[in-house]
Design a protein that fits this description.
The complex is a heterodimer of chains A (about 280) and B (about 325).
Chain A (H helix, E strand, L loop, with lengths): L11 H4 L9 E6 L8 H10 L25 E11 L5 E11 L7 H5 L5 E3 L5 E3 L10 H4 L6 E2 L6 E2 L5 H5 L5 H5 L5 E5 H17 L6 E3 L12 E5 L19 H24 L4
Parallel strand pairs in A: 1-10
Antiparallel strand pairs in A: 1-8, 2-3, 4-5, 6-7, 9-10
Chain B lengths: L29 H25 L3 H25 L18 H24 L5 H27 L4 H4 L5 H20 L6 H23 L6 H4 L1 H23 L4 H31 L2 H17 L15
The chains are: A alpha+beta (about 280), B mainly alpha (about 325).
């Protein structure tokens, strides 16, 4: 593990020690064609046997899931915006977006996991080993996207695996398989990035200047996401952080600060015992 | 001017998804806040014991050794009790992982525990254990600064906004708090003729802690706010008052055993309040999306205004809102 392993662009599977790793796989979620059907949420639960997360009416548009959690590994956000049409008539603008674990190049959850339960797969994704996790909870505040979560009656941490079991057999993850509009696209990350650039260009050419990519840039604070998005508004509107940075970027500086404070402690004790009369 | 009167940052306009948090608040219960205190207490006490033994102050040595082991036992309980799967606590020992402050802390705590255990056993055991106890005592004292400060890295190495932003100063707060609590043990347990070093430790520890906390509460812009308002604000203000009272008593009460003991208690309570305050401040900053969104938007804006060609946005044209 080199110094650059903590930050900046890299291919995560070889960096984690995989030799002859297959191409990095990912999700491209194009929210401009999402119709809010929640087939992704359902397919994910079915395939991964994720427990229900309550049957609640949240009063947040058609979203009664609320957000990603230990028991929701795909989450469809619904945003209703009051707008005026070109003729000045009030109208509603709908935004829908299927959110998921970003499978970061520099994954905060993976960096801080003290048991090795979280690991980097050969596909460059990040997966929790449920037989190893002891529920310490450190991954949960470490995620800059608020994705990974502790399951209450179970104690362990859970999140999207990108259907690691299906990937190993060359199959498409359940959510992407179930998506009826190809809003969720699965494939080799490099290819998805090219496809996404073309899609943004096409939307701009069609006059939709709102379209922008999120999480696609290897130069960003997490080294780029394995699951990235085409959005039609600012990230925070969808509940996403505008400029996420993996905390581990600053870990060497943090340890240095702790070292200085530790030395100050030792000096204070020496002074205390040698410095006075009584 | 009290922190409450200071206008921190004008309320900025920001959008969120139905006001829901962006980052997830820690699921840690108050066990972890309590551990921040007991871990620091164990460290401060171990250093007190080593200093006391090296300079011929047996009361400091004894109190320090026994408190270090007691606080270590409490720490172990809190840490295991907070796990989602306490029966799997030993999975912490599967790996040694430099990118995980919790993994590093596990090994620091384990090594410290062995050393402090030997030192305490020698204190109450037969005299033949004495050389071994001394080795354990100095070993524990050598590990104590790491034990006292790694917890600051542990909190800072998260996406919790007000912990992360405070990474330069949190170790000072925790180091100072650990020293002050160790000094508190000395003031409580030792007769006045032995307590001189504990008084000086109290002053130096309090200075470190107050300086660090002041920086955290005043220099982080919007992200200082969670430390000055609500429960965290009350706890940190209480911690500051108790620290001041403890230092005052330690300095002025050098002839009175009762005043010394009271100031020792005050310092211990101060350390406890400060740790809970820092813990609560971070939790509060994660619960409100504004603490995640606004600083990140400001950072992006600053990047865009300083760079001529936008570096973020890749090959697509960047759209700013």
């Amino acid at each position: 593990m080199g110094a650059d392993s903590l930050f900046g662009p890299l291919d995560p599977a070889p960096d984690a020690g995989w030799t002859a790793a297959p191409p990095r796989m990912g999700f491209f979620t194009d929210t401009s064609v999402c119709i809010g059907c929640k087939a992704c949420e359902v397919a994910c639960k079915e395939w991964n046997a994720v427990p229900d997360d309550g049957f609640n009416l949240l009063g947040t548009s058609y979203d009664n899931t609320g957000g990603l959690s230990a028991n929701s590994w795909r989450h469809v956000a619904f945003i209703e915006q009051d707008v005026l049409t070109q003729t000045g008539r009030p109208d509603i603008n709908w935004l829908m977006m299927s959110n998921v674990c970003k499978h970061c190049t520099h994954a905060g959850c993976l960096d801080v996991c003290p048991t090795g339960a979280l690991f980097r797969t050969e596909f460059g994704t990040v997966v929790v080993q449920e037989d190893v996790c002891n529920g310490c909870g450190y991954c949960i505040p470490a995620c800059p996207y608020g994705v990974i979560d502790q399951r209450e009656d179970d104690g362990r941490a859970w999140k999207c695996t990108m259907c690691y079991d299906r990937m190993g057999d060359g199959m498409t993850p359940a959510c992407a398989q179930a998506c009826p509009t190809q809003s969720i696209q699965y494939g080799e990350l490099d290819e998805l990035r090219t496809r996404a650039d073309a899609r943004v260009a096409a939307l701009h050419a069609d006059g939709d200047s709102r379209a922008r990519l999120y999480g696609h840039d290897p130069q960003d604070g997490v080294g780029g996401d394995g699951a990235f998005f085409l959005l039609l508004d600012e990230p925070e509107v969808y509940g996403l952080p505008p400029d996420p940075v993996v905390a581990t970027r600053d870990l060497p500086a943090m340890w240095r600060r702790a070292g200085v404070a530790g030395l100050a402690m030792a000096a204070a004790v020496v002074v205390s015992f040698l410095g006075g009369r009584a | 001017m009290s922190p409450r009167d200071r206008s921190v940052v004008p309320a900025a306009d920001f959008r969120s998804y139905y006001g829901r948090p962006v980052v997830r608040p820690p699921v840690w219960r108050h066990d972890i806040a309590a551990y921040l205190f007991t871990g620091g207490l164990a460290a401060g006490s171990a250093m007190l014991a080593a200093g006391g033994d090296a300079t011929g102050r047996p009361a400091l040595r004894r109190a320090g050794r026994l408190t270090a082991l007691g606080a270590l036992g409490a720490s172990t309980y809190f840490l295991i009790n907070d796990l989602g799967r306490p029966d799997r606590f030993h999975h912490m020992l599967r790996v040694a992982k430099p990118t995980s402050p919790m993994s590093m802390g596990t090994w620091i705590l384990s090594a410290f525990g062995g050393a402090a255990g030997v030192a305490a056993a020698a204190e109450i055991g037969p005299a033949v254990l004495s050389p071994l106890g001394r080795a354990g005592q100095y070993g524990a004292a050598a590990l104590a600064p790491a034990l006292a400060t790694y917890t600051a890295v542990l909190l800072a190495d998260t996406a919790t906004p007000s912990w992360n932003v405070a990474y330069p100063e949190l170790p000072l707060v925790f180091a100072g708090s650990a020293l002050a609590s160790g000094a508190g043990v000395g003031l409580l347990a030792a007769p006045v003729r032995e307590a001189g070093p504990a008084r000086r430790m109290a002053v130096l520890g309090a200075a470190l802690e107050l300086y660090g906390a002041h920086r955290v509460e005043t220099t982080k812009g919007l992200l200082s706010e969670p430390y000055t308002t609500g429960r965290a604000g009350r706890l940190l203000r209480a911690g500051r008052a108790l620290t001041a009272a403890g230092v005052l008593g330690a300095v002025l009460g050098r002839r009175s055993r009762a005043v010394s003991a009271a100031s020792g208690l005050s310092l211990l309570a101060a350390s406890l309040a400060t740790r809970f305050g820092i813990f609560e401040g971070g939790v509060a900053s994660a619960k409100d999306p504004k603490y995640t969104v606004i600083p990140q938007k400001e950072r992006l804006l600053a990047q865009r205004t300083t760079t001529v060609t936008p570096s973020r946005g890749g090959s697509s044209s960047p759209i700013t809102g």
